[in-house]
Design brief:
There is one protein chain. By secondary structure, this protein is α/β, with parallel strands linked by helices. The protein has five helices and six strands. It has a six-stranded mixed β-sheet with strand order 1-6-5-2-3-4, with helices on both faces. Helix content is 27%, strand content 16%. The protein has one domain: Nucleotidyltransferase, domain 5 (2-Layer Sandwich), CATH 3.30.420.
């Protein structure tokens, strides 16, 4: 006797009212996709525990040179993450020569990034990847994996020393890469900064 399969009568539907955090990655210029142009970054967060009151690490990677930056945020709340990013941006946006270090940032759709689009300006574009598409920020994801060698899951970020964070960044940024012609990300980044003149 053939097996009778009862199909669900529920209709699939897309969520109409999904909040749009900002410009989609679909609007990003192709020069960013191909990594030809310097000054375009990916951003993510790294959590130590599920405790929402714990600090988090905000990680950024420059797409062309693969320079990796790790910043401590007081929490994963949107306002704290935005404040952390704003403080980092202010270190070079005040300089006419250095403002081109960060021309765009691509984020995921996490709630912790829900307010960073407010930082967009004439000189800074903010893009958001598609939901559940971590490969669209693959460089950042890979480097967060390297960071986990130093800061494993379960370790509260509030207990992580600044010296450990700096050591992890040094390890990532001083590793020669075949894709960079065997230069380190730090060497490639400093070379690009010198060209800004």
């Amino acid at each position: 006797m053939p097996l009778i399969v009862k199909r669900s009568q529920r209709k699939a539907h897309t969520r109409q009212n999904k909040k749009r955090l900002g410009a989609s990655i679909d609007e990003r210029p192709s020069s960013i996709d191909t990594r030809e142009e310097f000054g375009h970054w990916e951003i993510d967060t790294v959590r130590g525990t599920k405790n929402k009151n714990d600090q988090v690490l905000v990680t950024l990677i420059e797409r062309k040179t693969r320079l990796y930056v790790v910043l401590r945020s007081q929490s994963g709340r949107a306002e704290d993450v935005k404040c952390t990013l704003e403080t980092w941006l202010s270190t070079f946006t005040d300089s006419e020569n250095l403002k081109d270090i960060c021309k765009s940032i691509t984020s995921d759709n996490g709630s912790e990034f829900s307010t960073i689009a407010e930082l967009a300006s004439d000189s800074l574009d903010i893009y958001f990847a598609h939901p559940y598409s971590s490969w669209e920020r693959g460089s950042n994801e890979r480097h967060n994996g390297l960071l986990r060698r130093f800061i494993p899951k379960g370790m509260p970020i509030s207990t992580v020393s600044e010296s450990l964070i700096r050591r992890a960044m040094r390890q990532c940024n001083n590793l020669p890469r075949k894709i960079l012609g065997h230069r380190t990300p730090l060497e490639a980044f400093l070379e690009e900064v010198r060209l800004l003149g």
